Amino acid sequence: MRSTLPFTLHNCFAVARDEAEIQSLLNNDIYKFLMLDFILAHPEYRKIEVKWKMKVRNKDIHLANVIPESALREQLDAAKALPGLSQADISYLRGMVTNTGKPLLNEQTLMFLKDFHLPDYHLEADNKDGYDLTFTGPWETSIMWEILGLKIINTLYLYHYTKKAKLTPSEFNGIMTKVFGRLYDDIDVVKSHQNVTFSEFGTRRSASTDIHRMVLEILNSELPEQCIGTSNVMLAKEFWQNNPRGTNAHELRMIPTAMVDEPQEIIDTMYRIDREWMKHNPELAILLPDTFGTSFYLQHAPDDIIQWHIGMRIDSKNPLIAVPEYVNWLIGHGQDPKTKLVIPSDGLDAQSLVDITQKCSSQVGILTGGWGTNLTNNTKGTMPINKEIFGPFWSFSVVIKPEAVYRPGRGWVSTVKLSDNPTKATGSDERVNLFKKTFGVEGMEAQEVSV
Asked: Whose C-alpha in 186, 205, 355, 386 is 20 to 30 A from the C-alpha of 84?
């Protein structure tokens, strides 16, 4: 007898229907396409060989105890077998334009995506009940694995956890009822503060594409003026929304800075990338300064970057500290904060988004959130306690970051991300120490990582 319950494994997980989780390359964040466009326009960045590695930050998450290796390989293989984008998808991307009518992506990027294929992956069990998962290939192709790989990991973890815990259909329905009850509670909080706006940034750790789609449909219906878009290209296309929302990510600075060794060269490379990005995408000239520390970045920023950037995305620094720091920096350099955009985007929930907006929005021109995991995978504490026996059932902190670049004559060299939250730092001890000596640690504060 087919279940009549509103939430079933079948309608929440593609794998329950023997389908691939990733059925389109567009099921990805827009910033991957924007960065690809930038890379292809700069020959010096093409063909850089990059190794990406999955890292689970939560010590109590043991993927191999939950996700069968065969199931993980099956989903990764399905993604790898995807053909390039269809003509319909290419036409959609071609139709994305900036506010001035300029195409968002160059034609050479569209032609590149038409015949695109993901590079290979390497997967094996480690000795800690986890998986060693890496992706290696030229930057312009390996760039796409990050979000797709994370989506597969998060979805398979939740799906196979429910199977191993032997949940009844009623118990699973109860979990999802709690998840969506939380969503409606969050919506009520946001509705009560009409000046609060946000973009949905939850692709990478969504519970599944099916659940992500349900969440976005509800947001579009309940908060049509306050949810101003999604970062997911496929869902923006499905829902006939405006351009997907996003700019760039830390990898844009991590990879080129791994190609040099002298401290001043590292600093100059960081600023050069941002300068080139701003020239390539003047309407997306939004700083992401926490790659190697926000305080250093702002204190040493060149005049042209100060003058021509349009705003800042706050990732790992407390926005209640970062916004005043940014505002004071702008004023000190003769810039009007009321002309700038600020995007808090790390670990937001409804109340923190409201608090940040209420306390900081009057200081800048526009403050709008990037709300991610706590929208599309708000599962913590929903599993019946007697069933949660394989570790936490929730949206754990997992990342896929560039681990190293290949330098001819030198071999593999570690990439580095320092972050304003040292708990998120990545890289070999040798390179991290070099970057700490180069950038210092001012303004950095260790915080627990939840997403």
From this structure: 205
